[in-house]
Every structure is written in C-alpha cells, then in structure tokens.
Design goal:
Layout (H helix, E strand, L loop, with lengths): L8 H29 L4 H12 L1 H14 L3 H11 L1 H13 L4 H24 L9 H24 L6 H22 L15 H13 L2 H32 L4 H23 L8 H21 L3 H29 L5 H30 L1 H22 L20
Helix pairs in contact: 1-7, 1-8, 1-10, 1-11, 2-6, 2-14, 3-6, 3-9, 3-14, 4-6, 4-8, 5-6, 5-8, 6-14, 7-11, 7-13, 9-14, 10-11, 10-12, 10-14, 10-15, 11-13, 12-13, 12-15, 14-15
Amino acid sequence: MMSRAIFSFAHYLGAIGTSNMATGVHTVLYPWLIVGILEGSPSDLGLAQMALLLPNLLFILPGGVISDGRHRGSWLSLLYLLYLVPLALLFWAVARGHLSTALVIGFGLAFGSITAFVQPARESLLAYTDSAVMHQSVAKVLVVKFIAQGLGFAFAGLLGYIDLMALVWIQMGMFVLTALLIRRSHPRVPEEDTSASVRDPWGELHEGLALFRDDRRLLHLLYLVFATGVLPFGVFLVGIPVLAHQVYDGGAFLLAVLQILFTLGVVVANLGVMRQTQTFTRPGKSMIVSFFWRGSLFALTALSASFWLLFPTIFLWGFSSGLSMVLGRTILHNQVAKSHRARAVSVYQLCLCGGTPVGAWLCGAAIEQFGVTQAFVGIAVVTMAVAAVAAFKSPLWGLATGVAATTVDIKTS
C-alpha cells in the first residue's frame, strides 16, 4: 500500500482526453474498415465488434485484481504504450495491401485485450477525488472523454481527405502522449511503500464479486448494465454504421457526423450534471427511466422516414446515454470502498462489455434476417419491456442517496 497518494486530476483529465481522441478515431475507423473498405456484411461487422469486445469477458476481472495491487500511474503508462503493437500491425497491413477481414478481427482482439486491463485501472483512479462530489468528478471525466472522442470522430470522418495510414499515426501519437500524462497524474513517490506483500488473487477476486452478491442494489445495477450492453450498445455499434451505409447511402463522413451528434448529447447531459452541487437523490430511478427512453428512440430511428429527424434523435439518444453513464458510475463509486474499487469497476465493466459483444452479434444477425426497421423495432420493444420490469421489481428504483453517500466498508480477510 502507499503511505500517501499524489494525484493530479488535471493531468488525469489530459490523459482521458488524449486517449479518447485516439479511441474516437478507432470507433469510426474500425467498423468502416469492415463495411466501407472491405465491403463486409452486417454479420461480418457484428463478428468484428464481438472480437473487439470479447476480451473483456476473459481479462477484465483479472485486470481489476492486478490493478488493485499495482501503482496505477506506472501500470497504466505501460498499458497505453502497448496499444502501439496492434496499431503497428494495422499500419503494416495497410501499407503492404494485406488488409483483410481476418486481420481486422485479429487487430480488434489485440486492441480489446489491452482495453480490458486499462479500464478498471483508469476508472479506479477516481477514488482519489472527493467522494462528496463524486458525481461532478465523474461528469467532468465523461465531458472530457466525449469531447475528445468527438474530435477523434471528426478526424476519422475525413477519411478520403486524410490518408488512412496518417490516421493510424495520429492514434499512435495520442497513446504515447497519454502514457506520459497518466504517469504525471499519479507519480510514484520516494515515500511509497514498495515492499512486496503476499497476495491471494483468487481471494481478492472473490471479495470483488461478493460486493455485488451481498448488496441487491449493486446486483441489480449489474443486471441493468448488462442489458444496456446487449440492447442499446449492440444497436449503436452495429445498427448505426449499417443505417448510415445501407439506409442513407452515406460514407464515413455521415457515420462520423452521427457519432459526433451522439457525443454532443453525452457532453450536454454531463455538463448539466457538473452544475449540480448535490448528488442524485434517486439515481437508480433516473437510470431506469433513461433506459426506457432509449428504447423509444430506437423505434423512432427505425420508423422515421425523415433523414433530418435522424440527427436530433441521435442527439437525444446520446443525452440519455450520457445521463445513464454518470448515474451508474456514481452509484458504484459511492457504494464501494477505495480498496476494492478497481475490482468493483472490473465487474461493472464486465457486465457492460460482456453484454455488448452479444448485442453486437444479435443486432447484426437480426438486421440480416429481418431488415433494419424490423430489427430496430424489435430491440426497442425488448428494451422498454426490460425497463418496465425493472421499475416494478428492482430495488434500484427505490435507491436513495444523500450528499453523504453510504460507502460499503469491506475488511479484507
């Protein structure tokens, strides 16, 4: 353990910005490699997105355990530099003309594996901020994250004007800068106790899982987060690129515009949260309502014949998603002790990202089988039904938190 913690929130936000600018480029570029450059099918895209997200199922829980026992700044700096490996492989494939669906899927597996270790370590650094204003800290991170992603979307949307290999170079440069900033945000200090301690990884993993087993509110938070990965995120990752390419006959620019509008919605929602001096009084209820709202937006996106109505709908989709993100993370950070937060975050992310590859594959298969409109409407109906059940049955609906949120105090065995 550290005798004292030095943490620069400004450098942390800088690292969030540079890393998410790189991932913003990736978010547009990765699916476009499949549907736009290689002319793959919706099921090919679903398989590629599943490959990107599947490593979370295998590595995010071990990633949380490892992060709780390591110096976050040094560990994260190394992880961000590892992103250079799959990006260098992609650069080589493009330069040599060897780009293929199998290679893109392999790239996605490598990229997703690194992300599985990055997420719990990066999120757990929020433990060093003031928990009394945790919702503001989370909102600030999300605002910076999505503004930076929007810039990344804009760069990727210029594909055709900017060379593909130049975009890969931009990503690599951003990850190098992130490695430097994250080390500055949480430097190792001379007074830090670096003595080795005997650890029980399986026992620590069990403690992380026990947090959710012993608290029904946290358990139902996982249920809702998993449903979010399967339904809204699955549609967003597969349905939106297909919608842009097949329904509206657009290119990478239209896909980037839709991504930017979604991002603006997320940013506006979190700017509103940042203005709140008090934490949410009924965060669980608000999270369930936003889940229902997204289901209705899926139906509107599918049934609307107006191209221009698509833009405000995507913005509102982003707004409700941004609100849900800050609500879920605020509940988690306020309910779990610092010593267990990386493990708790890893379980939370496992449910979110564990559901997402399933949702991506299901969405791609549904679009191929029934068409875009019918697939969107079907997913919308299921989403609203899940929200209705949660409103009547889940203890999240009645979860109330004051300014001084109750923190679960877990004593390690």
